[in-house]
Write a structure and sequence with these properties.
- It is built from 8 helices and 17 strands.
- It is of the alpha+beta class and 336 residues long.
- It has 2 domains: 189 residues, Fructose-1,6-Bisphosphatase, Chain A, domain 1; 129 residues, D-Maltodextrin-Binding Protein, domain 2.
- Strand 3 and strand 4 form a beta hairpin.
- Helix 1 runs antiparallel to helix 2, helix 2 runs antiparallel to helix 3 and helix 5 crosses helix 8.
Length: 336
């Protein structure tokens, strides 16, 4: 008997009743993001064959070298959101200021989008998994031009969040506050199909993910937790395995499926942390919480942080709830 296949579009329509405040706009917005993801996936898969690999010769607002594929992905997502008509402004890692979308199609749009168009771009040239992270909020300013106020909302105010991972297979994972569902792109039909319904992260795990090359610059509490992960103890299954890809989406995705913790603490070189709150940490924090996990800045819940700027950075400890809680305990002991 042939198994019923549910596409992303069908799934979104079936779940439309989850949004009592919406009349199909959010569903269409998620569809637009899915379409742009397919276009980016196509270019990622053929990047080695055409001249879109390598650096563009410029830097983004973060001071990071911009890859050609970063620019393509940014343009594709902004274009899809502009033509879709449901988004009035975009906050992107690649743009210093918010990108206002004001035209006849978007004049009454109710939503703003925060996005990292191509996370892990330093891995583009070496064929390692990269991804897209996105977050959707309802605008809070009156109709007309959206402004920074619309973007400086706590993560608790998100109405949808997700990521796309471009790897051996391409997956789109998202939440609207009612669980987490994953869709794998079937290239034969060009559709994202439901492959991972109701995703849950194990309460505990045996993987820790951190750039240990920065160990000497880390706070003492984080160093103590790393040593804890490396100690031998049969009752807790230690030592844990160290797995670090260097693409946030890839490390997060693995730990979501298998259980584990991803850490990017503050360091002497990056005292405020390095990851961006609005378009990296908040969306992944909401996803992990909806999957039964936890996300912290080392002291408290990521989603409770009040953003003060578009590109604000924060430390991040995210993954299986028991592992994040243990990391918090080590940090608090050192600060006491």
């Amino acid at each position: 008997m042939r198994q019923k296949v549910t596409t992303l579009g069908q799934f979104i329509i079936e779940r439309q009743s989850d949004f009592p405040f919406a009349k199909g706009e959010l569903s269409r917005l998620l569809r637009d993001i899915g379409i742009a993801a397919k276009l980016v996936n196509r270019e990622v898969n053929k990047a080695g064959l055409v001249d879109i690999l390598g650096e563009l010769g410029t830097t983004n607002v973060q001071g990071e070298s911009v890859k050609k594929l970063d620019v393509f992905a940014n343009d594709e997502f902004i274009s899809a959101l502009s033509s879709g008509g449901e988004c009035c402004a975009v906050g992107s890692e690649e743009n210093e200021e918010i990108v206002s979308i004001q035209n006849q199609v978007n004049k009454d749009a109710k939503y703003i989008v925060c996005i990292d168009p191509l996370d892990g771009s330093s891995n583009i040239d070496v064929n390692v998994s990269i991804g897209t992270i996105f977050s959707i909020y309802r605008r809070i300013t009156p109709s007309g031009h959206a402004d920074l106020t619309d973007f400086l909302q706590k993560g608790t105010e998100q109405v949808a969040a997700g990521y796309v991972i471009y790897g051996s297979s391409t997956m789109l994972v998202y939440t609207t506050g009612r669980g987490v569902n994953g869709f794998t792109l079937d290239p034969s039909i060009g559709e994202f199909c439901l492959s991972h319904p109701d995703m849950r992260i194990p309460e505990n795990g045996k993987i820790y993910s951190i750039n240990e090359g920065n160990y000497v610059h880390m706070p003492s509490g984080v160093k103590s937790y790393i040593k804890y992960c490396q100690e031998e103890d049969t009752t807790t299954g230690r030592p844990f395995s160290s797995r670090y890809i260097g693409s946030l989406v890839a490390d997060f995705h693995r730990n979501l499926l298998k259980g584990g913790i991803f850490m990017y603490p503050a360091t002497a070189k990056s005292p405020n942390g390095k990851l961006r709150l609005l378009y990296e940490c908040n969306p992944l924090a909401w996803i992990i919480e909806q999957a039964g996990g936890k996300a912290s800045d080392g002291q408290g819940r990521i989603l409770e942080l009040k953003p003060e700027s578009l590109h604000q950075r924060t430390p991040l400890f995210i993954g299986s709830s028991k592992m994040v809680e243990m990391a918090e305990q080590f940090i608090s002991k050192q600060e006491a």
